[in-house]
Amino acid sequence: MNLDDNDFDLFGVPQRQAQDNRLIDVRWRALQADVHPDRFAADGAAAQRVAMQWAVRVNEAHERLKNPLARAAYLCELHGVAVDAEKNTAMPSEFLVQQLEWREALDSAQALPEVKALALDVARRRDTLLTQIERTLDKLQDYTAAAQQVRALMFVERFSEDIDRRLEELEQ
Amino acid sequence: MALLQISEPGESPDPHQRRIAIGIDLGTTHSLVAAIRNGVAQCLPDSQGQVILPSAVRYFTDTSGELCREVGSDALAGAAHDPGNTIVSAKRFMGRRLADIERHDKLPYEFIDAPSMVHMRTVAGVKSPVEVSAEILAALRQRAEQSLGGDVFGAVITVPAYFDDAQRQATKDAARIAGLNVLRLINEPTAAALAYGLENGSEGLYAVYDLGGGTFDISLLHLHAGVFEVVATGGNSALGGDDFDTMLADWALMQSGMNTVTPQDKRAVLVAARAAKEKLSVADDAILACRLSGGELSVRVDREQFVAMTRQLVARTVTLMRNVLRDAKVHRADVHGVVMVGGSTRMPMVQWAVSEFFGQTPLTNLDPDQVVALGAAIQANQLAGNADGNRVLLLDVIPLSLGIEIMGGLVDRIVPRNSTIPTARAKDFTTYKDGQTALALHVVQGERELVADCRSLARFELRGIPPMAAGAARIRVSFHVDADGLLNVAARELGSGVEASIDVKPSYGLADSDIARMLQEGFQSADADMQARNLRQAKVEAERMLLGVRAALAADGDLLSPAQLNTIGSLVNDLRARAGGDDHAAIDEAVQALSKGTEEFAAERMNRGISRALAGRSVNDI
Predict the structure, then answer these.
(1) Do B326 and A168 touch (CB under 8 A)?
(2) Does the pTM of the predicted model rise above 0.80?
(3) pLDDT tens for residues B49-72?
(4) Which of B62, B160, B410, B458 shows the greatest Cβ crowding within 10 Å of its Cβ?
(5) Strand arrangement, sheet containing B216-224
(6) pLDDT tens-digit readout, B134-176
(7) What is the pLDDT of residues A31-58, one digit of tens each?
(8) Is the pLDDT of residue B120 over 80?
(9) DSSP characters for B235-283?
(10) Which of A2, A36, A171 faces B322 most closely, judged by CB atoms?
(11) Which residues of B are catalytic?
């Protein structure tokens, strides 16, 4: 067991997209109980520093493993296919059209119910994409195709954040 | 009362003795200190039997012209006639500039704005909120040392969850000046959850609604088997009971057509407003009465009127509750219980708003004034190494996103809010000029898109980058947030492996030279016998260190080469020799030397220990 182990090995979970989120949380708490700097507060500065490194690593792995988008991107990377969203911006045209329609809908929405309906729509699309990604990764093991699907999902996630911001504004 | 244990000079005290660890709630209006006594967390009372220390410091000159200061109720008594020198609610000024303090004109102080932090001019000179807070902390430290019969080893000090980096650093600085070793800064809602959780054996998702004198926090925590995990936190570090007072005072003045003119007027009307507000928590109406320079002010106010005029303040807390649920991605119905913390939650309308929102009666079985200090004491006890079984684990989060300024005055978010701490993120940069050896970064904290709308934390200058062609360098900058929620930055050029030296220019806070000066000046209320105290502490530390190293060598000495063993051996002998003497500085020096000399060994021991634990875990898991 060392700091360089990949997230899945560190947490003792199978290396695949389908995961039991509750198990990940259980493992995370158990790991933190062993490595958190608070555990070594009476042991001096050096011990604290090492504990910090481990605690940071465990938190990093936790963040990545429990977020399906991050997890999928990580799996692609582990198999040598970088997601590299900044470089690979090409998207299928029907996808781009959908994005534009959503954008227009958000911009023209005046009231809370409209935005909430849009949020629901986007959430459904997100779930569909996630199911698709899981199949591409775990069943087909096609990491190149998965990377493309991850990039699409990143668009959707970013838009979802914009919706959240709008909801917050309207709820003030 | 425990018998005071005083060692003869030269006699080393029992190193197996439990370390005295305390928890401190440094509140806007009230401060408390607590410790574990006979296995139970208790708030420590003063000689009058009061556990609450009003967060007030008064600077004055006595009859012989000597500069004096008083802390607590005595100071508060002076507020009416000497408002400019009686500093209350200093917490609201920590890590803040004048422009950050809304309606500072309503306060009776002579503010001095400085780029680093707002200061107040008093008869004892210009004082920073850090110094004022240090006085309060020192008073609590002394109370603890008297009650518990010994030197305080360390303290856990609580801060609002929503406190930013500048406010947290200011709190740590205050503790340093007060002679306190800060074991950890913990968030007030987390401390409260700890006290509640252990008291009630609670499990599940809990909301902590903490409305204090000057700050508001709403935290969502998951409690399970001794693990207290913050899921999300939100709040406003400039919203509290004081604001209710101000609204009521403004209203009363408007009703009567009177004005505040002198600093005495300003203080008087606020004190009267607070008294009326507190009365309205137990009665249907109250009279707001005080003497102003323009005459007597006397206005009747009833509950309905008070609720109406302060409705928007409560509404702001409700909006923040909604936001935090969204951040946590949970529904109100998922919340198992709601804990109310802070004196301001005694207001019936606040209790009503919270019950309404969550659809359940909030838990109030622990005193909302004491619960934070009690939680801090529990954590302090554990961090000091006193807790045997039943360990608790606090997993907290950073409340505000951290980012850096990029082209166009925009913020590039590096660490998102509600990330579990400790955490680290890295970002790669490169140079834009041939031979460029330095890089400047501006770090900000906040949720807005523009740098101008966020709080500036510091400017970092990374130096010592090996000169190369423009764009050839790959500088990895890591942003570390520690368990106190404080930011540290490290940088390395990946190609050459050169560590950049980092020059930090914090936007807020005291310079090291200021702190050194304050430490020198000391406190009038400080120990009479600092020397003896320092010697005692040095000897205790020496004994602990020697025992610790002996145990470490026995367990993992095989990790060391004969040469390494030799080096450590001579450092041990040196310390043992000095510990028998009377020179505390020499002892401290030898302790530092041994600590540094065993650093690498400690790191290897840790690695071995953790690897074992993790490996064992994986093997044992089904």
Answers:
(1) yes
(2) yes
(3) 999 999 999 999 988 988 889 999
(4) B160
(5) B337-341, B204-211, B216-224, B227-236, B393-395
(6) 999 999 999 999 999 988 989 999 999 999 999 999 999 999 8
(7) 999 899 998 887 777 788 889 999 999 9
(8) yes
(9) EETT-SHHHHHHHHHHHHHHHHT----SHHHHHHHHHHHHHHHHHHTTS
(10) A171
(11) 25, 91, 188, 210
A119 touches chain B (CB under 8 A): no
Shortest alpha-carbon distance between residue A12 and chain B (Å): 6
Contact at CB, B422 and A59, closer than 8 angstroms: yes
Which of B449, B488, B614 has the highest number of chain A CBs within 10 A, making it the mutation to test binding with A? B614
Give backbone dihedrals phi and psi of B181, rounded to 5 degrees, phi first.
-90, 115
In the structure encoding, which two tokens stand for residue B377, read together?
């004491």
- Confidence class of residue B13 from pLDDT cuts 50, 70 and 90? very low
Q: What's the confidence (pLDDT) of residue B179?
A: 86
Chain A residues with CB-CB distance to B227 below 8 A: 29, 32-33
Compare B297 and B489 and report the one with higher pLDDT.
B297
Which residue in the set A42, A51, A63 is minimally distant from B606, CB to CB?
A51
**Closest residue to A46, CB basis, from B385, B422, B603:** B603
Closest of B482, B324, B559 to residue B418, by C-alpha: B324
B465 pLDDT higher than 50: yes
Question: What is the dihedral sign for C-alpha B276, B279, B284, B286?
Answer: negative
Q: Where are the strands (E) in B307-357, listed by range?
A: 337-341
In percent, how much of chain B has pLDDT > 70? 94
Instruction: Tell me how crowded residue B295 is: count the other CB atoms within 10 A of its CB.
Output: 9
Q: Is B494 helix (H, G, I), strand (E, B) or coil?
A: coil
Cα(B155)–Cα(B157) distance, integer angstroms: 6
| β-bridge pairing B337-341 and B455-463 | unpaired
Task: Output the CA–CA distances (angstroms, integers) from residue B119 to B30, B75, B95, B276, in the order listed.
Answer: 21, 19, 10, 30
ipTM above 0.95, yes or no: no
| Residue with tokens 């950890």, as numbered in its chain | B184
Contact A49 B382 (CB under 8 A): no
Instruction: State pLDDT tens for residues B365-395.
Output: 899 999 999 999 999 999 988 876 678 999 9
Q: Which residues make Cβ contacts (< 8 Å) with residue B390, sequence separation at least 6?
A: B226
Which residues in chain A are closer than 8 Å to B183, comparing Cβ atoms?
41
Instruction: Give B524's pLDDT tier (boundaries 50, 70, 90).
Output: very low
Residue from B128, B124, B100 nearest B112 by CA: B128
